Backbone:
């Protein structure tokens, strides 16, 4: 909502300055978004006349115009507009002027070799309208203004307010003035509109159909006959221009003015173009009409339309139609002032994707008792400016407005706000805001003003009182430093631990969007369902991600393009399995690309590989507190991993829930994405599948026991079939004697010379120690042969001699 | 006697020369080996007659000690010469680079969430979470924003079905609803998380982060709200004084509602929080609307309290001087490295938010 201080003063008597005004507006909840100066610079734009044009010698489309800018001064201006011709009255901008639209400052410039002193402006360049075809054409009345500034001198700045949706009353200057006055910023001017007393009959019949979902509950109107539509008088034009609106014609300008002044939208019809009478009714499916925005709208059933015998004239409260629009030659006017239901307006406008000033106001709620005031005010202005005769006012209603009453307990104010104001002060504020107040023992009986649809219960009254008395009166109550419940639950603690644990392994944490490109998502979707967003911001962000890899790989690729060769990034966040709330899981997902020790003088470089990510996953889970000796790992992984170089990890061999996947990303995906790196490995840890730690650190640190008896290490080399897994040997050995076997390490894996085809050699070092005594050679020999025998029996291995 | 003296003189002279370790060892075995000269003399002690035996034994021991000490010191001398010689050779260029290491980082949004949680933890808030996909009821209707409410226009919503029943939450406020439906009052929670609006330009990202706050108890009023936020902002920006302004606003789920501005000034192109005469809007808040309490079966005549919503990304931008919101989600390696935090920098109550 744009206002000026000058306009406000039509409704508000005050001696205060604009600076105070801006502060006060914000203090009472009418936030000042911006203040823009319209005065000053715009005084440079002058009414001027083209007295001669000639063709530019070096450009077909350009003309050199001699422009009379008053006081016998003529400037040469190069102009490209087709309508630039001798005798045209237009607007001239001298060098130094700042063009409102582009905010550029004009300078004397040579255009194709001819010097141009200033510019002739289009309406669009001056922000007067969207008309950018040609320069502004002024009517002959402006001849007497040649040399004078086109814009009236205005001291008022343009103040843009952000009005919250609960305050439709402040979409009119008067509403704002009322709030200001209540807050002590001046006095509201009494402007009771005098009623029109007319003997002329209203000859157009208006009917509101009583049907289900009727969006119009009252329709007031009057006829004004024998008018002569014209340009608006200067005061009216200035008023509209002062808030950045473009004057059109007296009748349109008057309806706009009344709307902006008292937030009462009106509509003027050319009465001669209405067939017989007005019928307000629900639209039928498929009905069409051309609206004033020159677009053709096809209606669904149940939209509130204003129609006549021939069909739809307009959408009630949203936009009128071209068929019955007023023009300069309009003689007889039907002026409409109606009440439309906010919900109905909103539904219709949404379906048709229409946004207009009237719609914006009606959907927030117009004062239902302003119908006659609006008609009175506008009809009188029309008569004053365009002449004619006003008929009696006719108001059709299918519902009567019921005043709202609230019983207000004054004690509630302090209970909610935490501070006190006197009852006297409360009553004054409420009365200034337009409430009728009656004292009733302990309570106030309030009648809510008809322009406040937002007020319906006691807490609404509290808000009014706090707002007007000032939020600065609210005290600061220091918070108490006391904790009754732990801040994080176990899952949240796990989240934070995992996040920092993975980061500590050299991964940079990324946060990417929860949605992604369908194409990338498909690479990592595996067998999951695709979840589409109905109205994505772009087709590349059309689905919720089924895996974090989709976004991460995209960003790894971008970083590779930026010239980084070795990089590790991770994200911890949601992936989605369905479109219902809760069908999501928290995943820690990392990607590592390139080499280790690239360009190192001391270490040999190598590609990052699956055992790097395996370490990161296992170490992270161990740091969290899981026992790696219990982990069970196999190679069943989703299709986006390299089938031979990837693994699936369970926290124990019950294999209930998959704790993590890790491995090389499938080479087909790298090929499709065209990612250029020596190696790309990744992992996913599924948080919901991790059993939350049951024991606290305190519980874990109970007894410290160790053996001081001598330990022995024995090495074994087994030859096994290729399919046999290292894990199988380890498990078998550890089961031989859990009390004596303390540690098992694989220190070599070998295939090739001296080993039969399809077999491999696995070398294992076993640490043997008793917690009761020092073992002698005989004991050791016994366990050695038991290990060999058991492994050979269980895995088909042969000890290598 | 002369025997001993002879041995002594002979070996003292042998040990006075420059010897290597094998020569020293040879001498050692010549003297103290099984049939070494000194060992042989010791065996003789028993054969010597009583009057002389004592003196012989004493002299022999003195000579033995003398020779043994000399051998030991010769050995040590040799070994240290050897080490010195080795040290002489083992000089490296210590300016050559160390073995490579990699450093991970925590994203500034994650760090900021931890900072926020740490601050609110101190005054008794616990952390709650809710799903990113919400139903229309929790996101709007339950929050006193029925269908056809113009306030819905302020939230450009991503929908997941044609009926517009399922959506990506446009704010963290539905966590209020979930929390209050799940438990009984009092409530004192914050709820950080991802939020979504179909808006995208320099200052808007289709995904961003919010933290919701909710404190419901008997007699919690606007003074508590003001005190809580003032405390938070001071702690968060790590300044002693903060200029804060509450001004009326409107949110359907709170009444009265307020927006909060903080004072700032620009110094050398950087925002300094807490000083100056400029105002910056940083959050929205208010007293939870009785309609919302009714929707979650909390009796508004018995319980009341406040709620607030803060943009986390914006807080991070202000605190750490980040200019472009979109960069948060662009994963530029250089940006993540520059604005990221070391994982060891965990914000806590006792060691503070930062170093």
Residues:
């Amino acid at each position: 909502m744009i206002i000026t201080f000058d306009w406000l003063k039509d409704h508000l008597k005050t001696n205060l300055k604009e600076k105070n005004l801006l502060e006060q507006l914000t203090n009472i909840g009418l936030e000042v978004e911006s203040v823009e100066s319209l005065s000053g610079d715009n005084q440079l734009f002058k009414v001027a006349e083209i007295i001669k044009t000639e063709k530019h010698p070096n450009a077909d489309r350009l003309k050199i115009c001699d422009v009379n800018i008053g006081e016998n001064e003529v400037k040469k201006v190069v102009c490209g507009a087709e309508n630039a011709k001798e005798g045209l009255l237009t607007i001239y901008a001298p060098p130094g002027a700042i063009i409102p639209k582009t905010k550029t400052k004009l300078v004397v410039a040579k255009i194709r070799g001819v010097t141009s002193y200033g510019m002739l402006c289009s309406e669009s360049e001056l922000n007067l309208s969207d008309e950018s075809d040609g320069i502004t054409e002024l009517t002959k009345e402006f001849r007497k203004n040649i040399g004078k500034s086109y814009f009236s001198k205005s001291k008022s700045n343009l103040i843009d307010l952000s009005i919250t949706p609960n305050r439709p009353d402040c979409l009119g200057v008067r509403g704002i003035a009322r709030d200001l006055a209540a807050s002590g910023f001046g006095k509201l001017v009494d402007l009771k509109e005098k009623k029109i007393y007319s003997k002329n009959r209203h000859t157009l019949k208006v009917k509101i159909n009583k049907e289900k979902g009727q969006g119009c509950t009252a329709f007031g109107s009057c006829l004004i006959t024998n008018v002569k539509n014209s340009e608006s008088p200067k005061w009216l034009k200035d008023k509209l221009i002062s808030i950045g609106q473009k004057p059109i014609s007296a009748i349109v300008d008057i309806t706009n003015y009344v709307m902006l002044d008292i937030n009462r939208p009106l509509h003027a019809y050319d009465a001669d173009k209405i067939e017989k009478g007005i019928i307000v009714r629900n639209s039928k499916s498929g009905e069409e009409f051309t609206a004033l925005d020159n677009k053709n709208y096809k209606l669904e059933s149940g939209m509130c339309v204003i129609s006549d015998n021939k069909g739809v004239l307009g959408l009630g409260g949203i936009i009128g139609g071209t068929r019955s629009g007023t023009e300069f030659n309009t003689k007889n006017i039907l002026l409409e002032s109606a009440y439309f239901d906010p919900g109905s307006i909103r539904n219709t406008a949404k379906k048709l994707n229409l946004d207009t000033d009237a719609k914006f106001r009606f959907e927030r709620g117009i004062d239902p008792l302003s119908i006659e005031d609006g008609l009175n005010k506008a009809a009188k202005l029309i008569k004053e400016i365009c002449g004619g005769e006003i008929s009696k006012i006719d108001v059709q209603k299918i519902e009567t407005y019921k005043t709202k009453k609230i019983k207000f307990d004054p004690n509630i104010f302090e209970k909610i706000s935490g501070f006190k104001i006197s009852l006297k002060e409360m009553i004054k504020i409420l009365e200034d805001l337009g409430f009728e107040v009656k004292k009733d023992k302990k309570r106030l009986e309030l009648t809510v003003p008809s322009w406040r649809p937002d007020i319906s219960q006691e807490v609404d009254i509290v808000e009014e009182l706090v707002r007007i008395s000032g939020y600065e009166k609210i005290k600061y109550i220091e918070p108490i430093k006391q904790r009754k419940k732990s801040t994080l639950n176990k899952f949240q603690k796990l989240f934070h631990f995992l996040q920092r644990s993975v980061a500590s392994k050299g991964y940079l944490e990324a946060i990417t969007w929860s949605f992604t490109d369908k194409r990338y998502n498909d690479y990592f979707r595996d067998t999951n369902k695709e979840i589409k967003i109905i109205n994505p911001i772009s087709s590349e962000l059309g689905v919720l991600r089924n895996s974090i890899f989709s976004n991460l790989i995209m960003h790894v690729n971008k970083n590779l393009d930026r010239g980084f060769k070795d990089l590790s990034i991770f994200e911890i966040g949601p992936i989605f399995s369905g479109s219902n709330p809760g069908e999501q899981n928290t995943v820690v997902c990392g990607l590592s690309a390139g080499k280790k020790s690239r360009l190192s003088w001391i270490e040999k470089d190598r590609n990052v590989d699956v055992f790097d990510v395996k370490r990161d996953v296992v170490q992270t889970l161990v740091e969290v507190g899981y026992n790696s000796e219990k982990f069970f790992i196999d190679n069943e992984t989703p299709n986006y991993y390299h089938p031979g170089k990837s693994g699936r990890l369970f926290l124990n061999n019950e294999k209930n829930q998959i704790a993590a996947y890790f491995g090389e990303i499938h080479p087909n995906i790298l090929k499709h994405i065209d990612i250029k790196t020596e190696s790309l490995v990744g992992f996913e840890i599924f948080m919901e599948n991790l059993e939350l730690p049951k024991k606290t650190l305190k519980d874990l640190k109970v007894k410290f026991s160790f053996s001081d008896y001598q330990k022995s290490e024995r090495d074994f080399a087994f030859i096994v079939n290729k399919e046999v897994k290292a894990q199988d040997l380890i498990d078998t050995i550890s089961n031989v004697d859990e009390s004596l076997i303390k540690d098992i390490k694989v220190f070599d894996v070998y295939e090739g010379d001296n080993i039969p085809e399809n077999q491999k050699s696995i070398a294992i070092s076993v640490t043997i120690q008793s917690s009761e005594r020092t073992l002698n050679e005989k004991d050791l020999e016994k366990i050695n042969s038991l290990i060999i025998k058991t492994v050979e029996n269980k895995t088909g291995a042969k000890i290598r001699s | 006697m002369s025997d001993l003296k002879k041995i002594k003189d002979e070996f003292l002279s042998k040990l006075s020369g420059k010897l290597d370790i094998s020569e020293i060892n040879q001498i050692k075995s010549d003297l103290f080996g099984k049939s070494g000269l000194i060992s042989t003399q010791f065996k003789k002690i028993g054969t010597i007659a009583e009057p002389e035996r004592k003196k012989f034994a004493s002299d022999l021991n003195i000579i033995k000690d003398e020779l043994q000490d000399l051998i030991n010191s010769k050995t040590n001398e040799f070994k240290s010469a050897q080490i010195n010689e080795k040290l002489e050779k083992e000089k490296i260029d210590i300016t050559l680079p160390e073995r490579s290491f990699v450093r991970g980082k925590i994203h500034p949004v994650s760090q900021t969430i931890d900072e926020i949680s740490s601050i609110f933890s101190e005054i008794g808030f616990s952390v709650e979470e809710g799903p990113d996909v919400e139903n229309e009821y929790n996101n709007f209707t339950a929050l006193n924003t029925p269908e056809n409410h113009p306030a819905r226009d302020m939230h450009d919503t991503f929908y997941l079905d044609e009926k517009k029943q399922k959506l990506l939450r446009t704010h963290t406020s539905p966590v209020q609803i979930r929390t209050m439906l799940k438990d009984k009052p009092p409530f004192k929670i914050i709820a950080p998380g991802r939020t979504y609006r179909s808006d995208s330009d320099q200052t808007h990202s289709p995904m961003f982060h919010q933290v919701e706050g909710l404190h419901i108890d008997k007699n919690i009023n606007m003074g508590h709200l003001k005190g809580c936020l003032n405390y938070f902002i001071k702690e968060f920006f790590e300044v002693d004084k903060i200029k804060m302004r509450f001004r009326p606003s409107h949110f359907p789920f709170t009444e009265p509602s307020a927006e909060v501005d903080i004072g700032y000034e620009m110094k050398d192109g950087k925002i300094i929080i807490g000083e100056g005469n400029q105002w910056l809007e940083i959050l929205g808040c208010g007293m939870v609307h009785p309609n919302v309490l009714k929707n979650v079966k909390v009796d508004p005549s018995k319980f009341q309290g406040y709620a607030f919503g803060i943009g986390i990304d914006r807080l991070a931008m202000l605190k750490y001087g980040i200019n472009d919101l979109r960069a948060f989600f662009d994963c530029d390696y250089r940006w993540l490295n520059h604005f990221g935090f070391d994982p060891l920098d965990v914000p806590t109550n006792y060691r503070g938010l930062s170093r």
